[in-house]
């Protein structure tokens, strides 16, 4: 049984994201004094004194034309309220009731969703006049809270209780299980089409899109079920991220926060899709993003978007493949897939490749298979002898998965050149089925008790 849903709504800068972060127990949503920080609706699992529910943080409601960015933000807020079991209507008790609050109240009175009026920033006496004024909105006495300081959460619990059914225990797949939802992050430069691609997958305008670069600020996670043509429905958690520009060009405080949020999303993901604009080709910033993904040990797929309008497609594809081979020295053969977020072409191929890549990223090699590979690799290319002293490699063991990590034990293995380490890693990828996922390989040599130079 899915969790009940609670939507937080209100005009810009009344503390919606602060309350969202308070309820989910961590700073998932960006918060700043500047109004209009939140643009897409953001969801998270919340718990309030044992009451569990799904909470949605929405953009500030503004009464502007639907063709404008604020207008498209308003449409996302309206969609969130329509799907919610209850809406928390937040107003700033210190600022009092303003005309936009009254406009939101009129809209909510026509909605079928139950509404709880919330007076935020109600600590002290500064908000008393605003609380009295709020009675005119027609939702009764407001629940008085301070989202920033955590005051009034008990009263909020009591107000939510009639709208939240008793929890039903469910079996949840283990994160390491192949049946667990695939955590798939979409990253790239601004305006590459990340939100458009996710909307195409979902079959709805879930995320705000438009010609303006940098619309997405928060990293937005959305649950989706992909109908695998081979095996049927499979769960996916899609993570849309803010566009990442070259660091020197990122001056705005909010953009810096957004980029940091996108990097945290990479840490959370299992597979990361780097989305490129095929009309622009591969740029140095794309390689920097790819390198960061691999450094974090995440599986990487390259998707060339806008393929339906790309010119000289064959030479472009080969050029991107060659640039990746040259620019990503630590991984060879990264999967490159052509897609069109506008038409949906290539989406099934992309998601199928993501599941296959996660399987390789999660692969554990049996001891017998691993050591047979080890013997063949050493026999085919024996280790060098630095300084004329023989390197003796005794055995290898896999210490973890996700990403697959191995340790080789032996004498003087710490003196092996980097080229031999690359040989072993590439051989491991080729022979053991890891493909282009990151593989971690470390060497351990026993300490020599007779070596007086080491203390």
Average per-residue pLDDT, rounded, comes to: 81
The H-and-E topology, N to C, reads as EHEEHEHEHEHEHEEHEHEHEHHEEHE
| Overall body shape | elongated
Strand percentage: 15-25%
Into which percent range does the helicity of residues fall? Answer: 25-40%
The CATH class name of the largest domain reads: Alpha Beta
Main sheet makeup? 6 strands, mixed
**Measured on Cα atoms, how large is the radius of gyration?**
26 Å
Number of domains: 3
Number of distinct helices: 12
Give me the side-by-side strand order of the main sheet. 2-3-1-4-5-6
Q: State the total count of DSSP E strands.
A: 15
CATH architecture of the largest domain, please?
Answer: 3-Layer(aba) Sandwich
CATH fold node name of the largest domain: Rossmann fold
- Uncertain regions spanning at least 5 consecutive residues: 28-39, 65-71, 166-174, 207-218, 245-259, 449-455
Helix/strand-derived class? alpha/beta
What is the CATH superfamily of the largest domain?
P-loop containing nucleotide triphosphate hydrolases
Family: Belongs to the TRAFAC class TrmE-Era-EngA-EngB-Septin-like GTPase superfamily. EngA (Der) GTPase family.
Keywords: GTP-binding, Nucleotide-binding, Repeat, Ribosome biogenesis
GO molecular function, one term: GTP binding
Function: GTPase that plays an essential role in the late steps of ribosome biogenesis.
